[in-house]
Amino acid sequence: MKLKGAIFSQSQSESTDVLAECFTRRNIAVKCFYLDQDYILAGLPIIVRANSGEQFHFSEFSFSYGRTWGETNARLKLHKWVAAFQTEGVTSLDPLNGILANDKKERMMPLFAEAGIPIPKTLVFTTGTHVTQVLNSISEQFACHVVIKADGSGGKNISFVHTSDKESVASTVRKYSVDELLSQALLCQQYIKSKNANGLSFHYRAILVFGNLSVLMRFTSASEAELASNMALGGSAELLPANFLSKEEVVILRNAAAATSINIAGIDFLKVGGELFVLEVNNSPGLYTACKLGTEKHLSDIVTAVETLHLQK
Questions:
Q1: Can you give the pTM of this predicted structure?
Q2: DSSP for the chain?
């Protein structure tokens, strides 16, 4: 079976379903591959084989769109596939360097710094860093409330401490260590207060498709005690009008997506005291969440981008 395009996801999800449906309505054939199932890259030129023995061949006019998170084997499989696609000249909507940069903030934050993207003051400590070095760096660089969490935590198990409370900082850091060495990458970030009149934390997410603002949302936490306003942690979401952002702020978001080489990007950010701070760029931008709020503009924009790429070949 020859394919025009493929959508990759760690497992079947509403986001991949609604995107595939949008392609189908525009008469573009796609196949969804779920990386928790037994699909393997059989070789070059691109052939993907299912455990049923069915084979899928990718033509030079194919495109790929990869989304995965969390589980290491699925991420490695996605990386292998996208690398093979690029070798064979198959267009990938998000290139491999963008997918790799999006995996960890220890890769993402230096890219923001190099591009001059405004972010909260952040230190990222790599696996194996000695706890003493971590504590000294935090003490030297911060005199404020900070958020400490594992890199790639998805908003879970966040610790909120003031750096003047050295015992709390030390005990928090040591939760991520074995024999005084970090067992995983650790993020320490300046806490920027962003709460509504009810005391609930909130942040914004913009979905950009090839640099163009498509959808703008506000995410709000489920309770006052919850620092993270992630949907996965029970938060709520609402649509905002595009004119909520100035032209200059849209340029900042566009530059953040470009810095990480993510073409279909969900950019999390804060707006506090007239300043915008980028938190991260997600290559899993919340397609279905935006659909539930009543818009499919982002899906239409993705399909239009694919059609444009085909015309350019």
A1: 0.92
A2: -EEEEEEEESS--HHHHHHHHHHHHTT--EEEEETTS-EEEEETTTEEEETTS-EEEEEEEEEEEEE--S-HHHHHHHHHHHHHHHHTT-EESS-HHHHHHHH-HHHHHHHHHHHT-----EEEE-TT-BHHHHHHHHHHH--SEEEEEETT-TT-S-EEEETT-HHHHHHHHHTTEETTEESS-EEEEE----B-TTS-BEEEEEEEETTEEEEEEEEE-SSTT-----GGGT-EEEE--GGGS-HHHHHHHHHHHHHTT-SEEEEEEEEETTEEEEEEEESS--HHHHHHTT--HHHHHHHHHHHHHHHH-
277-294 pLDDT, tens digit each: 999 999 889 899 999 999
2-52 tens-digit pLDDT: 788 899 988 888 899 999 999 999 998 899 999 888 888 888 888 889 888
Cα separation, 102 vs 95, in Å, equals: 11
> Domains of the chain by range and CATH?
2-92 (3.40.50.20), 122-190 (3.30.1490), 194-304 (3.30.470.20)
Tell me the average pLDDT across 70-93. Answer: 86
pLDDT digits (tens, 9 = 90+) for 114-153: 999 999 999 999 999 999 999 999 999 999 999 999 887 6
β-partners of residue 65 are 7
